[in-house]
Amino acid sequence: MPRNPKPAPVFTMHGMSKLFFASIATALLAGPACDGSSSDKPDTATSVPDATGVDTEIADTVEDTVPPDVGMDATNDTEAPDTVGDIDDTPDQTAPMDSEAADAVADTGPTIDPNGDSDKDGVFDLDEVADGTDPFDPRSTRAWHPEIVGYPRLYAGPADREALLALTTDDGDGAVLWGRIVSESDRTPPEHPDETTFKTNITPSQGHIAEAAAMRGWVQDDISYVVKALNIVAARFPDPTYLNLRSQFNAGDNYNLYESQALVGFCGAWDFARGYADAHPEAIDQLLLDAAKSRLLTRIDYFRTLCFLGGGCRALLRGEANNHSLKSLSALGICAMALPDRADAATDFNEALAAMDHIMQDVQGSAEGGWAENWNYLSYSGDTHLPLFVAWHRHAAGGTWPLRHTGWIMRGDDRVDQIRMVEDFGTNAMLKAVHRSAVYAAQPDGKTPPVDDANPSPQGGLLAGLYQDGIFRWNWRLPAVNRATGRTLVPSFISLLEAPDAVEPAAPLDMFLADAGFSVFRNNWSSDSLYLYMQHEPDQMRSGGQAHEHADNLSFLLHAFGEPLIIDPGYIDYSNHLLVKYAKDHNVILVDGVGQPFWALDPAIQIPPLGNAYLHAAETRQDQTAIIASTKYFAAEVRRRMVRIGEWGFVMADRVLGAAGKMVTWQLNGYASEKIGGTSYSRRDVDAGVAAVFSWARPNATIDALVVAASGAAVAGDRLEENLNKGGRTEHRCGTFEAPMDEDAGFLTLLVPRPNGADAPALVASRPAPGIMSLSGSRDGATVLAILNVTDAAWSSVDAAGTAVTVAADSLWVKTASGATVWSMATPDIPDVINPFPE
Fold it and tell me: Which residue of 343, 428, 566, 635 pairs with 591 in a disulfide if CB–CB is 3.0 to 4.6 A?
């Protein structure tokens, strides 16, 4: 369907000043207050059933714990309302409306089709009029898609049990994941520390254990694990409302994120436990089943109230069309499918799916496969949104469903309150392209690259079954990925029933994606491949990442021979990301110490960095593959050309415009220092004031970077910088080379990786004239010669063999054994950076 992209909100709630937002708090917090004072709040004093049966106190208080209207007939018609104990999950059956009543409706609104279902929600128009719901609004129905019956219904159906039982004993992926399910189902769930303290990190583990136990019990026909799961779901928990008072803009400790994960687990557990109860109606104590359902409804009601009806959590989500909102919305969608007879289920499902469609396709994703928040957050959000993809795909089966675009996140979009057809996420071409790009962009070990606020992370194995594509299973089996499932263990196991065999990704090995905002050079798919990833994010790919964006346009990272050699400092964690998000922390050019800028009030109010980058060209000639991209700062414009020389290494040429009379700094982050065991770092001048060599050695490989400056007396230096190292913070050496430059400004660099034990390359550098830079490097008998001319006139010379060499104005000349190639450094004009918030 045609999209209608809208700009991402400028402000993000992370790190915002409370004082700054005092004037707009009323608008952001519109809606019911979440101060815990409502007399409708259920009693949630802690009382945990024993592991083998139902706690009688829980059973006695089932009626006391039903949130207002949850599970009840919203219209209070003459038929007795549904009760918590009514587990048929079927809407009340009412007689069709008589013709006189239908005529009355027709006189006051749209025409009712007496034989039709106008909003295609599975309920006939006359039945909707009779029960008080809107026949023209698919979110207004007493149950979410009531034509879908039977349990389990999320990731599998009753007919799948035998196939899943067989999968538990296969000799491959199924047995590995089943072993994890068995281990998880045997764990003792953690508990909140007392009756009044709600710990957000407790509930995801509880939900994960309950889901694994319920599935194991259903698959193996073992009632003890079903009972264990139901007891976890039925256990009382502290009232989390007070979390909403910790901040004006968030329900403390990321309740929205962690409780989203918890709800997916709890609703998955209910789905399998209810399926077991349906198959064995005399086996499960009805009181325990009722208590589990009641407590789950209570948990959902709290979540909806804190995160969607008002208060700080809602204010956070309104400002962040990103992983926070995707996780929260997908949890609502899963719960609507698992408990479809809730009064709010249909509304929740419409709001969840329609808003997710908007966020993913208009804010975060690009048709080329980019993801604005970048890869780590795609995987993190996937812990909740991918299970919803799988569950919805089972029922939508590649079709489209009518959904009313509603809810807080859709305000300002021209589709709000309209009924639109939304495509099954499991067959959506853009979303598949996003996940495929994450595989093609992955580092040689298979994990996603750590750019912006994105630590290296694996993608989930369920993608192979969801998208019917073996490259996901191939990536998932790599040793470093280790069949990762995150919080999607159960749906990942079930998805193996549909997953094709693993297939290594096909050519092209290189990817140059202007709209997605990144390029990848790769010589093969092995773990020791020569690999370079470069950032050049434009427009939505930059701004849509919001506070998770770094000032890293034209930055890159490089791996070779099984080692990360040139790194991006990455994320560390959000509390420390101010240490690594600025241009000085990345492999970019600084002008007077400044690169891609942030707004002047950063970090009090964190917004994306200003200024786009643009990929202008990508081309292969002989054994050289090259790209050129550019970006502007307030101070200058930088054009960077990266050329891969077969499997030898890279030539990097930087031209800087508008730098006359300014200090221009080249910087490079190598993954070695005296702080990192088994590594070493060194630097040396090649021609004092003209060129220098920086070397970083790791256990299996070393990289040498030879750089020459276009003008001025350059000074080589280095400093310790923070980075993420296997989940902990460490420090590496960042090399610097800086000089005061005239109008002809820039740098030329050779990046030469080699396996340890190989001879060091022979490196030569010179600056034969201002604005003319020459480098050569020889390794393993192969020599590369590069000359960069950043002046406005051609330059000629004679090489060592007596051959005349002419380098055109504003161009890079590269010669290898295959011949010489000239690459232009000219690029189209790009927009100036405009500060929308001038001081």
Answer: 635
Q: What mean pLDDT is predicted for residues 398-425?
A: 77
Largest CA distance in the chain: 102
Model confidence pLDDT, tens digit, residues 582-633: 999 999 999 999 999 998 888 888 889 999 999 999 999 999 999 999 999 9
Residue 65 neighbours by CB distance under 10 Å: 20
Contacts of 281 (CB under 8 A, 6+ apart): none
Place of tokens 């993954």: 671
For 329-373, the pLDDT digits (tens) are 999 999 999 999 888 898 889 888 988 998 998 899 999 999 999
- Give 241-297 pLDDT, tens digit per residue: 888 876 656 666 688 899 999 999 999 999 999 999 999 999 999 999 999 999 999
Which whole number is the average pLDDT over 107-125? 74
> Do residues 225 and 216 touch, judged by C-beta distance below 8 A?
yes
Cβ atoms 607, 594 nearer than 8 A: no
Nearest to 119 by CA among 411, 430, 406: 406
Element containing residue 566 per DSSP (H, E): strand 563-566
> Whose CA is closest to 655, among 429, 812, 539?
812
Q: Round to whole Å and give the CA distance between 717 and 584.
A: 14
Q: Cα separation of 391 and 484, whole Å?
A: 20
Residues listed for the chain: 839
Crossing angle of helices 323-338 and 255-279, rounded to 10°: 20
Q: Tell me the mean pLDDT in the region 373-377.
A: 91
E strand or H helix at 736: strand 728-741
Q: Distance between the two ends of the chain, CA-based, in angstroms?
A: 42
| pLDDT the model gives residue 412 | 60
Instruction: Give the CA dihedral 536, 538, 542, 543, nearest 10 degrees.
Output: 170
Would the pLDDT of 820 be above 90? yes
pLDDT at 20 over 70: no
Distances (CA, A) of 766 to 217, 642, 814: 72, 20, 15
């369907």: which residue's tokens?
Answer: 1
How many whole angstroms separate alpha carbon 707 and alpha carbon 764? 10
State the amino acid at position 628 in one-letter form.
Answer: I
For the chain, percent of residues with pLDDT exceeding 70: 83
Q: Decide if 582 contacts 606 (C-beta within 8 A).
A: no
Structure tokens of 433? 């392209």
Domains of the chain: 18-39+150-495 (1.50.10.100), 92-142 (no CATH), 516-824 (2.70.98.70)
Write down the mean pLDDT value for the chain.
84
For the CA atoms of 250, 254, 255, 256, the dihedral, rounded to the nearest 10 degrees, stands at 80
CA angle 471, 489, 352 (to 5 degrees): 90
Q: By C-alpha distance, which of 467, 469, 457, 465 is closest to 490?
A: 465
Q: Tokens in use for 43?
A: 């009693």
Query: Minimal CA–CA distance to 363: which of 320, 307, 315, 395?
Result: 320
Question: Angle, to 10 degrees, between the axis of helix 203-220 and the axis of helix 223-234?
Answer: 150
Which residue, among 593, 589, 512, 600, has the nearest Cα to 552 in the 3D structure? 589
Question: Exposure pattern of 336-369 as b/e (b: 16+ CB <10 Å)?
Answer: bbbbbbbbbbbbbbbbbbbbbbbbbbbbbbbebb
Structure-block tokens of residue 815: 């010669």
Is the model's pLDDT at 87 over the cut of 60? Answer: no
- Residues 456 and 36: their CA atoms lie apart, in Å, by 39
Query: Each residue of 138-180: pLDDT tens digit?
Result: 778 878 888 888 999 999 999 999 999 999 998 899 999 999 9
* Contact (CB, 8 A) for 6 and 539: no
Neighbours of 139 (CB within 10 A): 26
CB 672 within 8 A of CB 724: no
